[in-house]
Write a sequence for this structure.
């Protein structure tokens, strides 16, 4: 039965990496700045999921903290970029 | 799974959830790549961030609970955080897109 | 309103913050429990100046029903969006567009909850409220029948949120 689980975990990792590649293509070709920010957002979520898969496959909980940090910093980064696109500055006086 | 034994009640649902989560994420990213304009491209990545993240984290909870022989809940924190934060970024991004399209290009900063 | 406001610590907030701390440390030890309670009280006291409004949940049963409906809708619209993305000629006959919905909900917490629900459902994104707060603008990926959409939206979410928060 572990064979089934290993196969599913490898499949999921492959899916997340493929999703990151798609997001990377959109990040490079994206015609407008908001497309690029959206691609960045998708990319960090999938990176976090890849890290979680690494944690599941190696059965350690160390990766959890890293995933939480990626989620936090990715959120802050996307908010800052979106705010910059909206107003032209991140922190308004 | 280097020598670890995963019981059947955890392995089958976790495998199913992982496959579902992976498929949702990759379809979301594919949609972001191939849909025609920015507003339609906003929608597919939401699939990966709601149900995709949710199913992967439930699978992670199942596996670590089964391996450590005690209930492990702390993946709920990531779920909570992602569920609370992605709508905020989506709303800010779409408002940025709307205001940028309303302005003529020479006024854009 | 602002003059009569005084600093109050809501017990629910303290409870949630303590639970979060214990979850983060994965322990139930007495030391962490005390530290968590102390941190939660300080944070809730500090945060109380940021938001003088406090939410009141009137109907827990309606809220639970709403949560189930939202979960089902997320699953259903995930399948719908996946079908649109994977369909070979989907791009050509895609009827996406903005949709304006007249809104009766006024409570800010209800509006925030509605924004979260709408945006975390794939296929719909909250764009914004009109300045007087009577018209809600959404962007919908597959907009087939506008009147049907508005009807569904008002019956499914707005009525329940008005019963919960107002």
């Amino acid at each position: 039965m572990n064979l089934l689980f290993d196969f599913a975990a490898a499949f999921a990792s492959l899916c997340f990496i493929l999703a990151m590649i798609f997001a990377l293509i959109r990040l490079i070709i994206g015609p407008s700045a908001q497309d690029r920010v959206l691609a960045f957002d998708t990319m960090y979520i999938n990176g976090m999921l890849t890290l979680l898969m690494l944690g599941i496959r190696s059965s350690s909980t160390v990766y959890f903290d890293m995933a939480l940090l990626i989620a936090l910093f990715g959120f802050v980064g996307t908010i800052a970029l979106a705010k910059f696109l909206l107003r032209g500055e991140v922190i308004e006086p | 799974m280097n020598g670890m034994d995963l019981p059947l009640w955890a392995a089958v649902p976790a495998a199913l959830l992982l496959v579902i989560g992976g498929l949702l994420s990759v379809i979301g990213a594919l949609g972001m790549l191939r849909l025609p304009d920015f507003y339609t491209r906003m929608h597919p990545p939401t699939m990966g961030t709601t149900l995709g993240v949710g199913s992967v984290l439930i699978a992670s909870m199942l596996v670590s609970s089964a391996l450590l022989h005690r209930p492990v809940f702390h993946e709920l924190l990531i779920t909570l955080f992602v569920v609370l934060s992605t709508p905020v970024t989506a709303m800010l991004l779409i408002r940025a897109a709307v205001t940028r399209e309303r302005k003529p290009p020479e006024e854009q900063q | 309103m602002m003059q009569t406001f005084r600093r109050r610590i809501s017990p629910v907030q303290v409870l949630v913050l303590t639970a979060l701390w214990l979850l983060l440390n994965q322990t139930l030890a007495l030391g962490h429990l005390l530290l968590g309670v102390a941190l939660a009280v300080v944070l809730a006291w500090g945060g109380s100046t940021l938001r003088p409004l406090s939410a009141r949940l009137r109907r827990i049963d309606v809220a639970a029903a709403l949560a189930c409906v939202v979960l089902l809708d997320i699953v259903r619209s995930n399948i719908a969006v996946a079908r649109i993305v994977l369909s070979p000629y989907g791009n050509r006959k895609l009827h996406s567009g903005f949709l304006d919905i007249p809104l009766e909900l006024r409570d800010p917490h209800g509006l925030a909850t509605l924004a979260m629900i709408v945006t975390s459902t794939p296929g719909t994104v909250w764009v914004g409220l009109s300045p007087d707060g009577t018209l809600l603008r959404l962007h919908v990926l597959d907009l087939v029948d506008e009147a049907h959409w508005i009807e569904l939206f008002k019956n499914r979410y707005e009525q329940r949120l008005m019963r919960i928060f107002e």
Remarks:
- Residues 123 and 165 of chain C are 26 Å apart (CA to CA).
- The mean pLDDT of chain C is 81.
